[in-house]
């Protein structure tokens, strides 16, 4: 049967003599010849002698997939035809969620606050029960709101207010759209108040050593002279 299937798979004009087949299979020429005779005896193989235009006698081997079948081109296998199955339909995965704003800071406390806010949305609307994957996608968007000085309660209101009455097919996609579409502007830029420099003390000469020093005008001696005067003799 293996030899018959191989013959059925050969294109027209391919070599099907014992030498060519013995080079293809591990069995020797003797077993190949016996297998060909068995196929011929059961009607799966015909060997016909023809004279070419040059007068040479050649043997043409015809393989059939049914005993005593009419002559056919050896392009099919003699094995039962495989069942043709329609190509599988191309199923695309779930559509990607809309992009969300990205925060400039990834501080753990900021991200944890955003995570807690998203996890608590289901308490306000049971339809907003989010998967772990959807939550991870939305956390940066919520963090971007929080770092813009938006209170968590205000973020929650922006995400849950005015939801449609019908079932939400993709609640995470709706939340992602709101986070991007309703993102508030950054808070007003606040400059840090400059520290008031200490008053600059006047420069004067010490009455004791005539060395210049800075001190209130009530002081007439430098620190060294004051220390020396205060020290016991």
Structure, explained:
Helices cover 37% and strands 9% of the residues. With 233 residues, it is mostly helical. Among the domains are: 2-63; 108-163 and 170-181, no CATH class; 202-228, no CATH class. The strands form 2 sheets. Strands 1-2 form a two-stranded antiparallel sheet. The protein has a two-stranded antiparallel sheet with strand order 3-4. The longest helix is centred in the middle third of the chain and has 15 residues, at 132-146. Mean pLDDT is 80; it is low at 69-80. It comes from Streptomyces violaceorubidus. This is Helix-turn-helix domain-containing protein. Residues 64-105, 181-201 are annotated as: Disordered.
Low-confidence stretches: 69-80
Helix content: 25-40%
Strand content is 5-15%
The assigned structural class equals: mainly alpha
Describe the main β-sheet briefly: 2 strands, antiparallel
Question: Would you count the extended β strands for me?
Answer: 4
